[in-house]
Amino acid sequence: MNRDVTVQDVMDREYVGVSESDELVDTVELLLRNDADTAVVQRGNELVGVVTQEDVLALVVDGPEPGTAAVSDAMTESVPTVSPETGLDAAADMMSARESRRLVVTAGPEPMGILSERDLLAGRDLGGPVESRDGGGAVTDAGAEMEADSTRTGFEDQSICEACGTFASDLSSFNGQLLCSDCRAM
C-alpha cells in the first residue's frame, strides 16, 4: 500500500450512530435502510461500542428475545480505533492484529467514520505506484511485479470447502464433496 495515503483519505465518513438504550430491532432496521453492517454506539458524542451483523446474530442465537433487547445487550464494547492521520499500512496491520473487519476512526473520544477492509483495498492504488520490499530489502515497484506475473494469484492451490465455505489447500473428496480437514473430522 502507498505510505502517503492516510485513513482519512479513504474512510467512510457517513456511519450509522445509535445509543446504548435504543431498541435493537430499530437499530437493525436502520442498518438495513442504510445498507450498513455496523452501527457506532455513542453516549453523547463519545464512542462506547459498535453493533455489527455478527453481534446481532449472536444475540439471536444465545441472548434474550431480540424484540425486547436493547443495543447494549448486543454491542461490542472493546472497539478497535484508529486516528485519521494513520497510514494505510499501519491501519491494515492493526486490523489484522485485532482480527477485525473494520476500525472506527476517532479524533479524541469522538468517532469520525469507519475504515473497512474494502476501504483499505480501494485506497491501495491512490497516490501513484505502490512500493513493496522484496526479501533482500531492496525497494521494488509492486505494479511492475504484478504485470510481469499477472497469472499468479496466490490461491492456485486452494479451493472452497463445500461444507463450511472456507478457503483451504488440503481439500479431500469425502462422500462426493470436497471437504477441509476440519469438516472431515466431524
Automatic annotation (TrEMBL):
Residue intervals of the ACP-type MB domain: 156-186
Binding site residues for Zn(2+): C161, C164, C180, C183
Entry GO MF terms: metal ion binding
Pfam hit, one: CBS
Gene3D superfamilies: CBS-domain
Signal peptide segment: none
InterPro entries on file: ACP_MB, CBS_dom, CBS_dom_sf, Diverse_CBS-Domain
Keywords annotated in UniProt: CBS domain, Iron, Metal-binding, Zinc
Domain CBS, chain residue ranges per copy: 11-67, 75-130
Residues the entry annotates as binding Fe cation: C161, C164, C180, C183
Keyword field contains Nucleus: no
Protein name: CBS domain-containing protein
Lineage: Archaea, Methanobacteriati, Methanobacteriota, Stenosarchaea group, Halobacteria
